[in-house]
Amino acid sequence: MQVDDDKDPQKDGTEETSTDKLTPEANESIEAQATPDTEEVTPAITETQSKVKPGPEATDEDVAQATDDAEDSLDDDDEDEDNSRSAKVIRKESTRVSVALTEEVKEEAVEIDEADTSGATGTAHDAFAWDAIAKIDNRYSQEEREAMEKEYEASMTNIQEAEIMSAKVSAIIDGDVILDLNYKSDGLLPLSEFRDQDIEVGSTVEVYVEQQEDDRGQLVLSRRKAKLLRAWDRIRDSYANGTVINGKVISKTKGGLIADCGGLETFLPGSQIDIKPIVDYDAYVGKTMEFKVVKINETIKNAVVSHKALIESDLAEQREAIIASLERGQVLEGIVKNITDFGAFLDLGGVDGLLYITDISWGRINHPSDVLELNQKVNVAVLDFDENKKRISLGLKQLQPHPWEVLDDSITEGSTVEGRVVNIEDYGAFLEIMPGVEGLVHVSEVSWSNQPINAREYFTVGETRNAKVVTIDRDDRKMSLSIKQMQQDPWDNIYENFSVGTRHTGKVKNLTPYGVFVELNDGIGGMIHISDLSWTKRFGHPSEFTKVGEDIDVVVLEVDEHNRKMSLGHKQLEENPWDSFESVFPEGSYHEATVLRKDDRGAIVQMPYGLEAYAPIKLMRKEDGSIAEVDETLTVKVIEFDRDQKKLMVSHSRYVNDIRREAKDTVVRERREERETTRKAVKQTNASNERSTLGDLSAFEQLREQLNNENDDDEK
């Protein structure tokens, strides 16, 4: 029979169904493959055998014709699409039967010709020597048959279900592969299951035995399941023993790649692709790579693989070899692989080393990227290494001589240098004379003035300054610089320009709780104490009187050349008003005052002529018992005046008490005057009336009682 090479196995229903993952249900899915309807298979085979059974006069042409008729009948019965696979199986069985019977007919025809056919009568069918055929079939005894069956059974391979076995390709017919397992029946698999492998007759493949016999007595095999089980065995072995497996990257997913390892899909995280960060995952899709299994899940038959682990294992061997040969001071070539704020990591050929920012250059740098670039090749010296922690410290500047060793001999004490400000601290600024050579300008060497200098406000990183070398120590590699010594010291002739009592105008440079710092000239300044700001006003802070940057007139009160200090005054520009205040504000005098400010202890009130006085809070109580408020004007009494201490104390309560006492004294005085007038009137009446009547006596008695009551009130 001719094989149709153009038949598409997908159209015949034999295309392999792909499986993404071998899950616990995968075994059942593989075993539960589709089985075609076999109800019509047995009758069809019987009919086929009856058609190809030769008669006594059958020739080769008759057998071939019978075979073709059987195939035609099978083709007619193949109209039902659901029974297409059954028809194919029958077609293959009929082919095998026809070939076998053709050979058997040729052999037995000779024997039949020699047999006795003398009694044959009737038609050709009836004339066939059926007894001769039966005699041939019965040429073995029952014991011989049983012995041969046992020998036949012993020659067969012992096949168990759910096992993977090797099979030999015995034939490839019409898109199907017939497999010989040395079993009583052959296996049949679609050719589509071998798309990943080139096979031919005689090739050996592995298959999974699903059933020893199905309803038709055929062997049920699966190569796809055998591949999945073998793939899972390899994955488990890689996880347990660290063996390497191959896989093909088939797609990209979130966070990594999907790799097909022998038919099983595994996950390759992005961090496990390579030892360096990977940005473009698409570049790996379609590549075949080697992996190590780093994690498996037996329940869902899933695995996580790593390509990075293979690279790291190779690098570990190289690292061990490199570290074993390291020596301090050894010069190596490295490639800059990463740059951070604190340094750079260099690849030394399988092992990484750290180059700290302080070991990159003898001079100060803000960031390693100022000197280095990624993938740049540089020679570095090994400074230190730790074999246990696999850490290597590298140095770049150590390959060059120290700048202090090649510093120009012309730089000595008293010489002038130019430097760039590279660092600023509270105590001063560092000037870089040349890379690796720095000098310190202390805040005390910035200006001749004793006024405090804020280095962070005076200097700016990166600016260039000229300075004079004050001290230099080449052995300790230290240098101190001065900016103020670039100019003449103004204190050398201080008495000529700023003698005591002279008046000047300066600029307010700083304010403190106790005074005002005034700059009179470059490097020359002094302080006005807060008590020397005004004769008449008291300030809680100098900011109430002036501000930084304002001009102010001052008088030189005292000069201390040794300590380079100067005392200034502002109120001394005017005459001391306290000499005349003693007569204006004597103790006990009353004055109108306005409350300027107050606190829990007292209040400051403004007296006439701009003079400020102090009043304890308890002495600011008014007649109604309340305390006087700010901006309230009231009369106060001077209770203390000290010209030397310039102190004036007043009280409103004392004034209120004085007013009350004065009012009471006035009432008493008026009553006494009235009583004296009444007595005089009585005396006059008595003198004019020599004899008194009873009525007059009564009136006189009332007058006497009135006088007595008035005397009692006065005593109270």
Automatic annotation (TrEMBL):
Chain residue ranges for the region called Disordered: 1-89, 667-716
KW Ribosomal protein (keyword) present: yes
Residues covered by the S1 motif domain: 162-224, 242-308, 329-397, 414-484, 501-571, 588-653
GO cellular component, one term: cytosolic small ribosomal subunit
Keyword line: Coiled coil, Repeat, Ribonucleoprotein, Ribosomal protein, RNA-binding
Gene3D superfamilies: Nucleic acid-binding proteins
Basic and acidic residues compositional bias, start-end: 8-23, 667-679
Protein name (record): Small ribosomal subunit protein bS1
